[in-house]
Amino acid sequence: MTMRWLRRISGIVWIFSWYTIYLEIFRWHHMTKSLRFSPPPPPPGTRIRSRAGAPLIAVCFGSVAAPLVFLMATMMERARGRPGGTPASKDRLAWSRVLFGAVLTAQDGQVSVGARSIVMENTVIRGRARHPVVIGDDVLVGSHAHLNGARVGRRLLPGHRRCPVPRMRRRDRHRGADQQIWGIQESLGFPGTVYGLPRERPAAERTSRQSAWCGANLGDRIIDESPRGQDD
């Protein structure tokens, strides 16, 4: 369980337990303001006195434990830089490729790149303290793209939709612009032209192929300089 979910669950228990205690004190009158159990009088003719049951004991225990767990989870999140993540001073790359000239800066906030994702040349990705950059799996970030505190979902192509639409007025850019651009790009057959795959093939297959191609030179080694004594 991540710290994010631990904080959410403990926060819900905190609110529920404190609200229940409020009802016990001011509406049901089963507890005093000093949080002591105040049972109703015994039935006439008997000496049976009520005792606090398991639900009330659990509520009292949750009202004490839940705030402590919530504060602990919050402090651990702050220490790690983001909920359930790794330190904000480091990038996290999981089987991904970052090509030449790309800049990933995590000095102010985390940058996380998903599995099989590819960051192409001269891209700038900048994480912010309150807005980390999170790139999902099987994402292809286009050349010269600039992501600043952004979250990119899985199987997307940010930075690739740059085909100009003629005579597009400013007020129309946010109404149907994507459909117009897609109408131009759909006929180009991007997956078939670049990857040799039909469009219906999963994105993981395309990015896996390109990731393997980008890593073809991982085994290269630096050769020795020219032999000594040889003239330039």
Tell me what the CATH architecture of the domain at 91-160 and 193-214 is: 3 Solenoid
Shape label: elongated
Helix and strand run: HHEEEEEEEEEEHHH
- Within the CATH hierarchy, at the fold level, what is the topology of the domain at 91-160 and 193-214? UDP N-Acetylglucosamine Acyltransferase, domain 1
Span between termini: 62 Å
Biggest sheet: strands, sense, closure? 4 strands, parallel
DSSP helix fraction:
25-40%
Tally of DSSP β-strands: 10
Structure described in brief:
The chain has 232 residues and is of the alpha/beta class. The chain has helices at 3-26, 54-80, 177-185, 190-195, 203-214, and strands spanning 91-93, 97-98, 103-105, 111-113, 118-119, 124-126, 133-135, 140-141, 146-148, 151-152. A 4-stranded parallel beta sheet has the order 1-4-7-10, with no helix packed on it.
Summarize this structure as a short list of keywords or feature phrases:
5 helices, elongated, four-stranded parallel β-sheet, alpha/beta, 232 residues, three-stranded parallel β-sheet, UDP N-Acetylglucosamine Acyltransferase, domain 1
Helices and strands in order, then pairings?
Blueprint lengths: L2 H24 L27 H27 L10 E3 L3 E2 L4 E3 L5 E3 L4 E2 L4 E3 L6 E3 L4 E2 L4 E3 L2 E2 L24 H9 L4 H6 L7 H12 L18
